[in-house]
Design brief:
Chain A: Keywords: Cell membrane, Membrane, Transmembrane, Transmembrane helix, Transport. Chain A: This is Zinc ABC transporter permease. The structure holds two protein chains of two kinds. Chain A is mainly alpha-helical. Chain A has 19 helices and two strands. Chain A has two domains: 280 residues, ABC transporter involved in vitamin B12 uptake, BtuC (Orthogonal Bundle); 128 residues, Orthogonal Bundle (Arc Repressor Mutant, subunit A). In chain A, strands 1-2 form a two-stranded antiparallel sheet. In chain A, a hairpin with a 2-residue loop joins strand 1 and strand 2. In chain A, helix 3 packs across helix 10, helix 4 packs antiparallel against helix 5 and helix 7 packs antiparallel against helix 10. By secondary structure, chain B is mainly α. Chain B starts with a helix and ends in a 5-residue tail after the last helix. Classes of the chains: A mainly alpha, B mainly alpha.
Chain lengths: 427, 264
C-alpha cells in the first residue's frame, strides 16, 4: 500500500519519466495500431519492429555516434523499406502476404544481427547500448527519451486527428475512397509512415518482439467493445495507457521485473478478458445468446405443437400428455419436460393431473407461431414460386424470427389470406 | 501459415523455461517436450481466439505470441538466479545454455556434439514424418476439402505439422535463436516456390537452398566477423531476392522478357 501511495504521488523523477514514457508510448502506438488492425495488416508492425535493427546498426557504422536522432533516422529508413519490400513482393509474385511478412521480418533482422555482432566484435567502445534497441529499456528512461516520446506521440495524435476522415475511409472502403478522388496511395504512405514512427520510438521501450503487442493488442481489445471507430481509438489509447502505468508500477514494486514484458502481459490479459466477456461480441455473451435462442425456439415449438393438437378437434383447452406431443415431433424428453416447466413458470401452460394445458396466453402465442409458419409458406409459394412441399423447412426456421411489423407486412402483401399452401387454415 | 511459424518460434519460450525449471537441467529432451507442448498450445490458442472469439486472424496471431513471449521473459526474470537463459540467446542464439565445453567457434555457433545430436535426431524425425505422412500432408496443404472428404483428419495433420514446426524451432533455437529460425523456415520454401510448380521439387529445392545458405552464411560470418545465424539469414534473403528477380518461370525480370514477344 505504501508502495502504491509512493508510486502514484509521482514524487520520484524516475517514476515520473518511466510512467509518462510508458503511457505516451502505449497510447500513441495503440491509436496507430487501430488503423493497421482494421486494414487487416496487424502483423506488419511486427515486421517493422524487426526491420529497424539493420537501420540502427548502419546509422551507427556510418555516423560513428550514438546520437538518438541519427539512430532513429536509420531505423526509420529500414523500417520503411521493409514495408515497401512486403508490398512489392506481394504485388509482384505469387508469394502470399503472410509469407512475405515472415520473410522480410527475419531477413532484415538477420542482417541487423550480422551488423550488430560485427560492430560488437570490432572493439569499438562506443557501441555498448546499441542492443537496447533489441530488448527495450523502459525502466531506464531518461529526460531526453521522454522528449522524443512526447514529440512523436503528439505528432501521431495530431496527424490522426487531422486525417481522421481520410484514414477511416481508407480502412473501411478503399475502392470508394479512390472513386471520390482521395489520394489513396499517399494515404497508405501516410499510414505506413505513422506505423514506422510508432514502432521506431516504441521499440526502445519494450524491445523488438513485444513492440508488435503494443500495436495490435490494445486495438484488438478495443474492437470488442465498440463498432464506432472514434470510440475504438479512445478505448485503445486508454487500455494502452492503463497498461503502461500498471507495467511501470509492477517494475517499481519489484525492481527485478522488466517493464516492457509486464506492460504486454497486462495489455494481453485485458485483451483476452475482452475476447471472452465483452458484451455483444465476446465469446461468453455469444454463447449465452445462442442458448437463449435455443430455449426460445424450443418453447415456441412446444406451444405450436399444443396448438396444432388443439386444432384437430378443435379444443384448445384439453390437457395433453407429454407423449402425445413427442409423437408429433421428436424432441428429447428431458428437454421437452424442462421447456414445459419453464413455460409453466411464465404462465403459458398449466399443469393438470391429466396433462399439460395451454393457458389463454399460451394459446395466443402458439397461434402466432402457427400463423407465421403458414404465412411464410404461402409467401414462398406465391412470390418465389417454390413447390409447396419445399417450403416447410424454411418456415420452421423463420417462424421464430419474424417481427410483428414484418408479420403485418406479410399479411398485407398476401392480401389477408385464409388458407396456406397445404390448405390448412391460417389462424 | 508463415506467420504461425513465426508465432510458434517466439511462443515456445515459456515452455523451454518451464521445462528447465521442472527438470533443473539443460537436457534437450525435456526442453523439446516443453517447447513442443507450447507450440501446440500456441496453435490451439490462435485457432481458438480466431474461431470462437472471432478475433481476426492476424490479430489473433499477434496477441497470442507476444503474450506468451512476455510470460517467458517474465519467468526468466523471476527465476533469474536459477535459469541459465537470457534474452539474447532467445533472440539470436548466443547459446548461453549449451555447456561451455561444447563451444567451438567464437562467433556464437556451437558445433558441440550435444547440439548436433539433437539436431540430427530431430531431422530424422521430421524426415520420417514427411515420408510417412507425405500423401496426407500434401492433400491437407492443397485441398483440405477433398482431404476431409476421403477421410483424412485435417485437424490432426494440422496439429502434427505444427508440432513438427515447434520441434524444429526449438532444436534450432540453441544455434540460431527464435527470429532467425523464421528465416530458415520461410525463406528457402519461398525461394523454391518461385522456382518450381511441383511440390516434390519444391521440397528438394528448399532443402538445397537451406544447405547453400548455411555454408555460404558461415563463410560470410567468418569474413566480416559477425553472428553466423545472422549471416545465414542474410544469405537466405539474398537467395530469395535472386529467385524473385531471375526465376526462369516467375522472376519479375525474366517474366517481363517473356511477355514482350506479344508486341510484334
Amino acid at each position: 500500500m505504501n508502495d502504491f501511495v509512493e508510486f502514484f504521488s509521482f514524487s520520484d523523477t524516475n517514476i515520473r519519466y518511466v510512467t509518462l514514457g510508458s503511457v505516451l508510448l502505449a497510447s500513441s502506438s495503440a491509436v496507430v495500431g487501430c488503423f493497421t488492425l482494421l486494414r487487416k495488416r496487424a502483423l506488419v508492425g511486427d515486421a517493422v519492429a524487426h526491420a529497424v535493427l539493420p537501420g540502427v546498426c548502419l546509422a551507427f557504422i556510418l555516423s560513428g555516434t550514438k546520437n538518438p536522432f541519427i539512430l532513429l533516422l536509420g531505423a526509420f529508413v529500414t523500417g520503411w523499406l521493409s514495408l515497401v519490400a512486403i508490398d512489392f513482393i506481394t504485388a509482384r509474385s505469387r508469394i502470399k502476404e503472410d509469407t512475405a511478412i515472415g520473410l522480410v521480418l527475419s531477413v532484415f533482422f538477420g542482417v541487423g544481427i550480422l551488423l550488430l555482432t560485427a560492430i560488437q566484435h570490432s572493439g569499438n567502445a562506443a557501441q555498448s547500448g546499441l542492443d537496447k534497441f533489441l530488448f527495450g529499456k523502459a525502466a531506464s528512461l531518461v529526460g531526453e527519451d521522454l522528449i522524443a516520446f512526447a514529440i512523436v506521440a503528439v505528432l501521431l495524435l495530431v496527424t490522426t486527428i487531422i486525417f481522421y476522415k481520410e484514414l477511416t475511409l481508407l480502412c473501411f472502403d478503399q475502392a470508394y475512397a479512390k472513386t471520390i478522388g482521395f489520394p489513396v496511395r499517399l494515404l497508405e504512405l501516410l499510414l505506413t509512415t505513422l506505423t514506422v514512427f510508432a514502432v521506431v520510438v516504441g521499440i526502445q521501450a519494450v524491445g523488438v518482439v513485444l513492440m508488435a503487442a503494443m500495436l495490435i493488442t490494445p486495438a484488438a481489445a478495443a474492437r470488442f467493445w465498440t463498432d464506432k471507430l472514434s470510440l475504438m481509438l479512445v478505448l485503445a489509447a486508454l487500455i494502452g495507457a492503463f497498461s503502461g502505468v500498471a507495467g511501470a508500477f509492477v517494475s517499481y514494486t519489484a525492481p527485478a521485473m522488466p517493464t516492457g514484458p509486464w506492460i504486454v502481459l497486462i495489455v494481453s490479459m485485458i485483451a483476452i478478458l475482452s475476447f471472452a466477456f465483452a458484451p455483444k461480441k465476446g465469446w461468453v455473451s455469444r454463447l449465452l445468446r445462442q442458448r437463449r435462442n435455443k430455449t426460445q425456439i424450443l418453447e415456441e415449438n412446444l406451444l405450436k405443437l399444443m396448438y396444432q393438437l388443439g386444432e384437430q378437434k378443435p379444443n384448445y383447452d384439453a390437457p395433453r400428455q407429454l407423449h402425445e406431443l413427442l409423437e408429433r415431433r421428436a424432441i428429447p424428453q428431458k428437454e421437452a419436460k424442462a421447456g414445459l416447466k419453464r413455460l409453466q413458470n411464465q404462465g403459458y401452460v398449466e399443469k393438470l393431473p391429466s396433462g399439460w394445458k395451454l393457458s389463454s396466453q399460451g394459446q395466443r402465442r402458439g397461434e402466432r407461431v402457427v400463423r407465421l409458419h403458414r404465412l411464410w409458406e404461402l409467401y414462398l409459394t406465391q412470390y418465389l414460386h417454390l413447390a409447396s412441399d419445399h417450403v416447410h423447412e424454411d418456415a420452421e426456421t423463420i417462424e421464430h424470427i419474424i417481427t410483428p411489423e414484418l408479420e403485418q407486412k406479410l399479411i398485407e402483401e398476401l392480401d389477408f389470406p385464409v388458407m396456406d399452401p397445404h390448405s390448412a387454415r391460417i389462424p | 501459415m508463415a506467420m504461425v511459424g513465426d508465432a510458434i518460434s517466439h511462443a515456445v519460450l515459456p515452455g523451454i523455461v518451464i521445462a528447465f525449471l521442472l527438470t533443473g537441467s539443460r537436457d534437450s529432451v525435456p526442453m523439446l517436450i516443453g517447447a513442443g507442448l507450447l507450440g501446440v498450445l500456441t496453435t490451439f490458442l490462435i485457432e481458438f481466439f480466431h474461431r470462437y472469439a472471432r478475433v481476426q486472424a492476424d490479430a489473433s496471431i499477434g496477441v497470442t505470441f507476444t503474450w506468451l513471449f512476455a510470460i517467458g521473459i517474465i519467468l526468466i526474470s523471476v527465476f533469474a538466479g536459477q535459469v541459465d537463459l537470457d534474452q539474447d540467446c532467445v533472440l539470436y542464439g548466443e547459446i548461453a545454455y549449451v555447456p561451455l565445453d561444447l563451444w567451438i567457434t567464437e562467433g556464437g555457433l556451437s558445433l558441440g556434439p550435444g547440439t548436433v545430436w539433437t539436431l540430427a535426431f530431430v531431422t530424422i524425425l521430421i524426415l520420417l514424418f514427411i515420408t510417412f505422412g507425405y500423401k496426407e500432408l500434401f492433400l491437407t496443404a492443397f485441398d483440405p476439402g477433398f482431404a476431409a472428404a476421403i477421410g483424412i483428419s485435417t485437424t490432426a495433420w494440422y496439429y502434427s505439422l505444427m508440432t513438427a514446426v515447434s520441434l524444429t524451432t526449438v532444436a534450432s533455437f540453441e544455434s540460431v535463436g527464435a527470429i532467425l529460425v523464421v528465416a530458415l523456415l520461410v525463406a528457402p520454401p519461398a525461394t523454391a516456390y518461385l522456382l518450381t510448380d511441383k511440390f516434390k521439387n519444391m521440397l528438394l529445392l528448399s532443402v538445397l537452398a537451406g544447405i547453400i545458405a548455411s555454408v555460404a552464411g558461415y563463410y560470410l560470418a567468418v569474413w566480416i566477423d559477425g553472428s553466423i545465424a545472422g549471416a545465414i539469414a542474410t544469405v537466405t534473403g539474398i537467395e530469395f531476392t535472386l529467385a524473385f528477380l531471375f526465376s526462369p518461370s516467375r522472376g519479375i525480370l525474366l517474366k517481363r522478357k517473356q511477355l514482350q514477344p506479344v508486341q510484334h
